[in-house]
Amino acid sequence: MFRVSRRDPRRGCSNVLCLTGRNTTVPAALTIGSATFVLVEAINCYLANVFWTTSHDPRKLMFTLLGRGFDLYVGIIWWSYGAVLSCGIFGALQRNIRTGTLWALLGFAGLLDIILEECMLIYGGIYTYYGHQPLVFNVFPCWWAFCNVSSIFVGISITYRYRHLLEGWRSCLIPPILPLCYAGPQVLAALPTIYAIQADYSPIITQLCGIVTCVLAVVQVGVTMDTVLARDPTDMNQVGRDTQSQLAHQKLF
What we know:
Blueprint (H helix, E strand, L loop, with lengths): L1 E2 L19 E2 L1 H8 L3 H11 L2 E3 L8 E5 L2 E4 H23 L4 H25 L3 E3 L13 H19 L12 H25 L4 H25 L15 H10 L1
Antiparallel strand pairs: 1-2, 3-6, 4-5
Keywords: Membrane, Transmembrane, Transmembrane helix
């Protein structure tokens, strides 16, 4: 099992896997639960015009949604990406890193998403984006990276906030928590772009919708930092919870 501890500022311990004598099942549940991201991603593919190729081999079929088949490789891709990002963010929060470093980590995750998808799209034949997609960098619509990272961040932040309640057998709650927290924020931020993709607006309006989506995704991350993690998203040097945010949350709840 993983042995996880918070950073002790007096001792300078920043190792996520410090020996504390207390086991946690949360990282393992995050790794397993990340497979559920593909269920929401399949729905988003309909809303935002993404088509995954299929082999038409029943042995490779993972599931069918609204008449469209999704092969096993779709689950492997999204499970891998979701597990790495989820455990990476959770581990960073366990290390109690500065807010500025957390922003940088999320930015790096978005850049990694762009690079990975560019490689898969250039390779060809795996999947394709169609419709009036805005903010296309080369072949990948970059607004997706903002939505992917921000929505996964919401679920991981909630898991981290209530990690003391999700130990042991209660870790079974994490797999349903992740897709539910992923679906709402993803569609919320992507909504302006979803309308633009399905419509036939002018190029300027389409690009503006993509920019609005990116802004909403960033705001979503900031609100999550403040309301869930009790961090001031504008204080880049802050480590841990913000005292004023904690007091406000105590009065609110």
